[in-house]
């Protein structure tokens, strides 16, 4: 006699995820992704809302460390530029969300550099098209 399941199925064991020639992000495969700049905007907006609501604005040590990290590595400071990069990257539907977020965070200078750091891009976009995309991203970074 078979009994109904009384617990959730176990998640797959960690360590199977990879971002190489083939991207396998496990349970996060289809999750929305953010660039460092987008994540910085979101968390800083949350902290501003907490300050306005006069709630505890100190946050946790993890939140503080995360904000420090994001503020250090976010390449775009102006909200308009962050949104423009997102619009630019979102036009490349053949790329995974993860790949687009990586391009928006790493701000590579050349297609060769981008394809070295994000190997899964190799067959998804030509070097010329990728160089053009990177030039457009760089223009937004320098505003």
Give a verbal description of the structure.
The protein is mostly helical and 143 residues long. 52% of the residues lie in helices and 3% in strands. The protein has six helices and two strands; from the N terminus they run ββαααααα. The protein has helices spanning 36-52, 61-73, 79-90, 97-106, 111-117, 127-141, and strands at residues 18-19, 23-24. A two-stranded antiparallel sheet has the order 1-2. A hairpin with a 3-residue loop joins β1 (18-19) and β2. The radius of gyration is 19 Å and the shape is flat. The chain starts with 17 loop residues before the first strand and ends with a helix. The model has no long low-confidence stretch (mean pLDDT 86).
Brief synopsis:
By secondary structure, the chain is mainly α. It is built from 6 helices and 2 strands; from the N terminus they run ββαααααα. It has a two-stranded antiparallel ribbon with strand order 1-2.
Give the helices and strands as they follow along the chain.
EEHHHHHH
What is the typical, i.e. mean, pLDDT? 86
Largest sheet: 2 strands, antiparallel
The count of strands amounts to 2
* Cα separation of the termini: 68 Å
Question: What count of helical segments does DSSP give?
Answer: 6
In what order do the strands lie side by side in the largest sheet? 1-2
Radius of gyration: 19 Å
Q: What structural class results from the helix and strand content?
A: mainly alpha
Shape verdict: flat
Query: Spans with pLDDT under 50 lasting ≥5 residues?
Result: none
Strand percent estimate: under 5%
What level of helicity do the residues show?
40-55%
